[in-house]
Amino acid sequence: MDVCMPADITIEPFSQRYAVQIFELILPIQIKEFGIRITRQDQPDLTKISEFYQEGNGNFWVAVAHQNVVVGSIGLKDIGNRQLALRKMFVHKSHRGSDNGGIAQRLLETAIHWARDHKITDIFLGTTAEFFAAHRFYEKNEFTKIEKEDLPPSFPVMAVDTKFYQYRFG
């Protein structure tokens, strides 16, 4: 993957033309970087992003570099009751960090602004214990660690999720 200048990165809602690239971004991060035993078949949401995420108050965005290369993703799943689940937040290794345009920060801010505009009360997320950088990132962005028992019943817990966070508007 070519490295590009941060100004070359745009954040845009998912469209079907990025479907294959989403898998090409996410699977290697899950498998190679974090050693998670997961397949395409384990993630049916990624085969129908529009139907799964872009319904109700949900949405899904991609960070797109020059030549339409997807370098990041984030999804918000509407779980009812004016609440959302944050899912599939990934940034390609070559584009991580504030020195590389703050792609993760831009993706998260896009999602939070969307949620605020749609009068959402809470965003919940689950992650694995091994994603230490993600923990720091969410905590820096005012997500509070919560117990699994404190999640709404409609929250889609993944088998690998062991840490949970909440962002409360208000």
Q: With helices defined by DSSP (H or I, 4 residues minimum), what is the helix count?
A: 4
Distance between the termini: 40 Å
N-to-C series of helices and strands: EHHEEEHEHEE
CATH architecture designation of the domain at 6-120: 3-Layer(aba) Sandwich
In percent, how helical is the residue content?
25-40%
Mean of the pLDDT scores? 93
CATH class value of the domain at 6-120: Alpha Beta
What ranges have pLDDT less than 50 throughout 5 or more consecutive residues?
Answer: 1-5
The major β-sheet equals: 7 strands, mixed
The dominant shape is globular
Strand order, sheet with most strands? 1-2-3-4-5-7-6
Radius of gyration: 15 Å
Question: How many E-type strands?
Answer: 7
CATH topology of the domain at 6-120: Aminopeptidase
Return the structural class.
Answer: alpha+beta
Strand fraction equals 25-35%
